[in-house]
Amino acid sequence: MPCLNLSTNVSLEGVDTSSILSEATSTVAKIIGKPEAYVMIVLKGSVPIAFGGTEQPAAYGELVSIGGLGPEINKKLSAAIAAILETKLSVPKARFFLKFYDTKGSNFGWNGSTF
């Protein structure tokens, strides 16, 4: 159950968020090796964010997964998600942080229980 939470200071008004959600879902699933049916993407726009003392376009993300993460996979995920944000929201790759959490199934609730 990978879950990617993305927050950006860019307004999502008039943006095709469906394409961002779809592309992020397929990207995360493919790189981690999990079915798309288990991937959740949360996208929040217009979040007050200052990075390096400016409020230029920036973003922060957290990706939580039950397994599937590690140094090489994380590097691929970081590059792929940064590319989506740069292409779709004009957030420069250098103004995006992504934090990874590899967790146990007992720490993830779903369907009224845990994994």
TrEMBL record:
Pfam family, one: MIF
InterPro entries reported for this sequence: Macrophage_inhib_fac, Tautomerase/MIF_sf
PANTHER family membership: D-DOPACHROME DECARBOXYLASE, MACROPHAGE MIGRATION INHIBITORY FACTOR HOMOLOG
Organism domain of life: Eukaryota
Record family assignment: Belongs to the MIF family.
Assigned GO CC terms: extracellular space
Organism classification: Eukaryota, Viridiplantae, Streptophyta, Embryophyta, Tracheophyta
Record organism: Nyssa sinensis
Protein name: Macrophage migration inhibitory factor homolog
